[in-house]
Amino acid sequence: MKTIGYGKANGKIILMGEHAVVYGEPAIAFPFLATKITATIQSCDSFLLHCSYYKGSLEDAPETLNSIKVLINHLQTEYATGPLLATIESTIPAERGMGSSAAVAVALTRAFFDFIDQPLAQETLLSYVEQSERIAHGNPSGIDAAATSGQDPIYFTKGHPFNFFPLNIDAFLVVADTGVKGQTRAAVKDVANLVSSNDGQEIMRHIHLLGALSKEAKEAISENQVQRLADIMNEAQQHLTKLTVSNQLLDQLIQTALATGALGAKLTGGGRGGCMIALTKTKKEAQVVSQALEKQGAVATWIQGLGVHTYA
Ligand code: PMV
Predict the structure, then answer these.
(1) Which domains does the chain have, with CATH numbers?
(2) Quick check: 236 and 210 in contact, CB under 8 A?
């Protein structure tokens, strides 16, 4: 056993296919390396948890941290380590569709295995994270666990294995937080109601078109076609608007991004709050867009290079 074990994970962003993925269409998720979680595990006299929301005994941690509590209990029982202090430092905002709960579980599991000085296979990691995500989310697709623990974009369709593909596009992604919690559950439910309404056929048409755009986006990314990817993002936003999952706040930020030099922009994740993303050709353009978004009310922005040489 080491004195202290370290583990890391990153955030995730859904580039394309949110909501449509619920209906069997493909989607694309990116590891979002601009936001990170670091966890440490060390021996202690009693079980303690230190994070920005809470500092105290693991047992008395609030219910919102249940998935962490269960994960640590599970790991320490299995490996009989005795009492532990777990610390978590995060720049991934919670409840913004960035996969923060999965990332915490990834970082903690990695820290734990580093602490006991044992190798950790990816499948073992994903199975611990899945158990933790079941408590946090009920029925996780596994995409957050895969995207927050890996380096490559993921093309995925419900019920099929993940398809990792290389990021090969010389562009920059600006991510802006509306400051409002995403409303994934409500939005998914409302889309389901629309699907079974009189407009159902028209709604399904938008859903299939979103799926087709995910396929095209994968091609555009593999062939370094920045303008094509931007056009695809703009088109996707129109379909997502028809699904009623955008809102005024997101629309305003999207307009601002397009007016200040972004080639494409859309919401990301569940919608009705949460985050939006914008694509630019250069880092300088990304900085201009990100400043404009903050002026327009975004509470935080991040820039991630997507090209082979800038993705870090
Ligand atoms: O807001 P997020 O990142 O949890 O993404 C939700 C994605 C949806 O397609 C809207 C729902 C889902 O379960 O896939």
Answers:
(1) 4-163 (3.30.230.10), 167-305 (3.30.70.890)
(2) yes
